[in-house]
Amino acid sequence: MVKGLATAGLFSALASSLTVPRVYADGPLNFPPFNSSPPPAPSPGVSSPEKSPESEEKPAPPRVRNDHPRTTSAGFDPEALERGVKALKEISSSNSAKQVFESMKKQEETKQKALVAKQAEYKAVQAQAETERQKVIYEEQKKLAQQQAQIKSQMARYEDELARKRMQAENEHHRTRNQELVKMQEESSIRQEQARRATEEQIQAQKLQTEREKAEIERETIRVRAMAEAEGRAHEAKLAEDVNRRMLVERASAERDKWVAAINTTFDQIGGGLRAILTDQNKLVVAVGGVTALAAGIYTTREGAKVIWSYVDRILGQPSLVRESTIGKFPWSGSSRRFSTLLRGSSSASTTQNGNGFGDVILHPTLQKRIQQLASSTANTKSHQAPFQNMLFFGPPGTGKTMAARELARKSGLDYALMTGGDVAPLGPQAVTKIHQLFDWAKKSNRGLLLFIDEADAFLCERNKTYMSEAQRSALNALLFRTGDQSKDIVLALATNRPGDLDSAIADRIDEVLEFPLPGEDERFKLLKLYLDKYIVQAGARKPGLFSKLFRKEPQKIEIKDLTDDILKEAAAKTDGFSGREIAKLMAGVQAAVYGSEKCVLDPNLFREVIDYKVVEHQQRKNLAGKSA
């Protein structure tokens, strides 16, 4: 048994000495004792775990020179193989060879199982590596897909940007082309207009030339006709000259004889009278005294009439500065004026009952209320014999300052007189006298007088102005003298468009200042309705009277179609900046447009057309005024 164990140990040593790795069909032949090829180089990027940094740093040992002929050029030593063969021979000659081979078989099976387990473990590792590789491939494919999607979106955005730029370029090209076309059309229209104007000018020149030639022909014809007629008349005159001469001679001789006889008779009578007067002294005295008395009477009558008339005109007549007044020019002309004033008062009372207390005057409610308060206070002042308050009305032209002064005088029960500041300057040195006559005349009113001076800045401006004459300064001083104290007979109302130009002394005499602004939209609407009724609805209304019905033709009335308050409100909105006077002129223009139409009908289209034209005209006047300023 000991021998068998020794034999087994011998074979195991042999097997361990001759142990070679298993060779597989899918790999290269790797049998170290008989391998003539060099070992494969390691793949890049994979480091061998068995090698240390020290072994990598050491240089490879020098190759041993083969001095024994029994070895190969690759360094193979067959000595181990020989020992193996020798050991096999000893085993085959031994009695325990079978047991040795069985032991070797078991060892080989054990190694095969270990190899199978390692193969399974390798396959598991290989499967895990494959799984990792698939995962890495999936991740790479996913990243690649994301990159491709991002690239596609970038490409889409880029293509969209290119398309947008291309569209912008095309639009810019079309716009440029359209501008060029419009410019070409404008140039063509300008050329056509120039050609048309040139043609019209040529036609007009030809017409003028034709008219000149026609006039020349007519003048020549008239000249020839006049010459012929003159020759005919000369011939006729020459033929009748002798007859006329004879007739004139006979008539002249007859007239001469008649006048000679009359003169002789007259001188005979005068001579007889003079002889009688000269021979009789009493007759001579009576004749001389009669002639002298007749001449003195004529002269005295003429001069006395002048003196009496000037005195009556100064005492009773209206001053020349007054343009308009409710007081008659002479006392005997006051009854008719009072009667007409009463009639106007009754008509205005009816107007007040209708809701418009100022008749044709449409003002802002606040301003209208203030004027009513001033009218009431002025009436109470007159009844209590208190001094009146002077007023200043200022604002743009045509805002109703004069009409408001009339209504203020009427409502307060005062007489009314109107003068303009522009009438004072032409009077020259007589202006002072006329101012005093005006105030003397105003004090004679029993009811009190509202003296309204329109365009007051014409002669009441600052006295230090260089262009103001000495006569104007004297007139201003005269007015300041007459208005120095508060009066119980006269209410002084001034109206101006430029209140800043008034003299400081005039401003000191003003107690109430009222601004008349341009009418607002509501006031313009009321003014449009007022003047629509005055110029359109009541147009052609005949005043009552027998002769007017008999001898005047029946006027054509204006027909109004579909002209509602909404259209009037639209017109009121368009006429922003219009004064009351401009609105009155606008409605007068509407009336003229209606009379100029065929059917005498006012419809919304015609009304809007006139409104638009007047608005453009108002803007043009405004621009011209701004340029002149």
UniProtKB/TrEMBL annotation:
Signal peptide boundaries: 1-25
Cellular component, GO, one term: mitochondrial nucleoid
GO molecular-function terms, A-Z: ATP binding; ATP hydrolysis activity; zinc ion binding
Keyword vocabulary terms for this entry: ATP-binding, Coiled coil, Membrane, Mitochondrion, Mitochondrion inner membrane, Mitochondrion nucleoid, Nucleotide-binding, Signal
Biased composition (Basic and acidic residues): 51-70, 80-89
One example of a Gene Ontology biological process annotation: mitochondrion organization
Domain AAA+ ATPase intervals: 387-520
Subcellular location(s) per record: Mitochondrion inner membrane; Mitochondrion matrix, Mitochondrion nucleoid
Protein's UniProt keywords contain Membrane: yes
Gene3D superfamilies: P-loop containing nucleotide triphosphate hydrolases (3.40.50.300)
UniProt name for this protein: AAA domain-containing protein
Organism whose genome encodes this protein: Heracleum sosnowskyi
